[in-house]
Amino acid sequence: MQNLNFKTTDTLMLDRVEKIQTPKGKTVQQTSMVLEDAGTYKVGERTIAVNLLNELESDINSKESIGAKSTEYKLSAVKEPRKYNLELALAGAALVFLLFEMMFIKLRGDV
User: Fold this and answer.
1) Stretch 26-40: mean pLDDT, rounded?
2) SS3 state at 11
3) Cα–Cα distance measured from residue 89 to residue 87, given in angstroms and rounded to the nearest whole number
């Protein structure tokens, strides 16, 4: 698979000036080109595949494990201070209490 695909950021070196069509549709005539975009490049009559392939990560029969193991991490509870916005709720409660008190005074006959 190494000789069938190029990786992005590889440089394509040609023997002579050829027409190269990029995956974005742009056509240039050069002897070398940095393969920046993933996709298929048409070089003359040939088609070259360029991708982000990492053969070490793609190998399902690997002898050794790559990356972090799940046993290396310890799960724990996260404690973070929270700021509660209670101004509106307290103002609403004070207004309800004030209306209740005015109603009580009105029913009692003091006003």
Assistant:
1) 90
2) strand
3) 6
Structure token pair of residue 32: 């070398």
Sign of torsion over alpha carbons 98, 102, 107, 108: positive
- Which residues does 21 contact at the CB level (< 8 Å), separation at least 6? 27, 41, 42
Tell me the domain boundaries of the chain: 5-55
Q: In the beta sheet, which residues pair with residue 39?
A: 50
Is the pTM value of this prediction over 0.70? no
- Between CA 47 and CA 57, with CA 11 as vertex, the angle to 5 degrees is 80
DSSP string across 57-89: HH-TT-SS--S--GGG--------------HHH
